[in-house]
Amino acid sequence: MRRETAGTHIVAPVASGRGEETVGGVLARLATEKPASMELVCMIDAHGRFGGAAPLGRLFQVDGAISLRDAVNPAFPKVGVEDDQEAAASLALHHGVDALPVVDRAGKLLGVMPAQALLQVLRREHVEDLHVLAGIRREATQARHAIEDPPSRRARHRLPWLFAGLAGSALATAVMAGFGETLEKTVAVAYFIPGLVYLADAIGTQSEAIAVRGLSLSRARIGHLLAGELRTGMLIGAALALVALPLMLIGFGDLRLAAAVSTSIFVAGCMASVIGIGLPWLFLRGRLDPAYGSGPIATVIQDVLSILVYFGVLRLFGV
What we know:
Radius of gyration: 27 Å
Strand order of the largest sheet: 1-2-3
Shape: elongated
Helix content: 55-70%
Number of helices: 12
Largest sheet: 3 strands, mixed
Strand content: 5-15%
Structural class: mainly alpha
Order of helices and strands: EHEEHHEHEEHHHHHHHH
């Protein structure tokens, strides 16, 4: 897979000036030079190294007699020419800026990654993540046009992940077979399996969709993210369980069964939320696109664990 960097989006030359120049002098000079990029005015030293920047509009709001050094933000975010383009877009969003200076390893200003490039990167990465979320492998430009590809190519993109799903389905079947005695004892137990699995998948899919984009944008630690998503899953699971309990009690008249199913819904909700965040993070740590943590792989894991939890809770409640 070709790595796309901030350097592929450089616009140059850029509006720049030395720290000792006055703001008025810089603006007058730029009006004559008309550089390709005027979104930012960058401060450079005698060797061309980046020392800070300010949006052009801000310079029109300050006293023209002050030095450029006093007008720019020395901590203005910048990216390296080899930095990943999605990381650059994330940095711009995090700091609320419309363009980013691009520097080489020595800190020399090479150009600017403009607002249009940042928007294009965000859109492109979003489309790619949606493809992978649906179980379609990323394959450079072809993946972006997956819906227009020949059927053979589309099948080739999807099948690897669905084969993994098939293996997981076989595992889920084996798990069910292992609890055959429980199913024979109480047939009603089987009625709730599709609903439980669906709810776990739905909760997990919500978490996965958030994680696919959120992990690349957030700078919070994974422990904080997991704790927050676990609390969210607990709230969702508790709400669903409380609604389901009286309905099942009225419908089947079995308190132990109703309590076991409700408890399983709560546990499965907590579990699915954590998996939805944790699995994409593991892919990210493995230097893979975090979107690969979604789709068929996460669904299989959630299905198998939900069934295990369900039958474990049934035995705990003596059903």
